[in-house]
Amino acid sequence: MFYALIAILSGISNVISRSVNFVLSEKLGVYQSTLFNYIFGLAGSILILFISGETSKLLASTSYDANWLAYTGGLVGVAVVSLQVFLSSKVSSFYLTLLLFVGQLFTGIILDFILSGKISIWQVVGGILVIIGLSYNLYIDRVEEIEVASH
């Protein structure tokens, strides 16, 4: 139950942050909005680090022996946040959430394949079904917009 609550709160914070990022990008621009995201994210992470009492691990040499690929996460994060901020003004929050879900699903499938050498056909089928449903929903929305505009 705890994990379901955390997942729900995570989804809510995702939608709220997207709305805040949209307003911020309208006032400051995409890149400045992304910078503020990272500044406040860093401040929050440092606060949690101090609250957790794990600061001693910062200086341990074993804390930095991860695969080089792990350190590219920051670059990917900047790209994702910048795209999210940019797309917030062009795509509804509902569709952005679905697109993020599909992206996470297929990224997970790719990572599973890279790390284990196995691929789950059911995850791929599920992802394709979500894409088909999203496409169909987008099509229906467009048809309704055209009908409303023509009347």
TrEMBL record:
One protein family per Pfam: DMT_YdcZ
Q: Cellular component terms, GO, for this chain's entry?
A: plasma membrane
Magnesium as UniProt keyword: no
Residue ranges crossing the lipid bilayer per the database entry: 35-56, 68-87, 93-114, 121-140
What InterPro entries does the record tag this protein with? YdcZ
User: Which N-terminal residues, if any, form the signal peptide?
Assistant: none
- Protein name in the entry: Membrane protein
Q: Which organism is it from?
A: Paraclostridium benzoelyticum
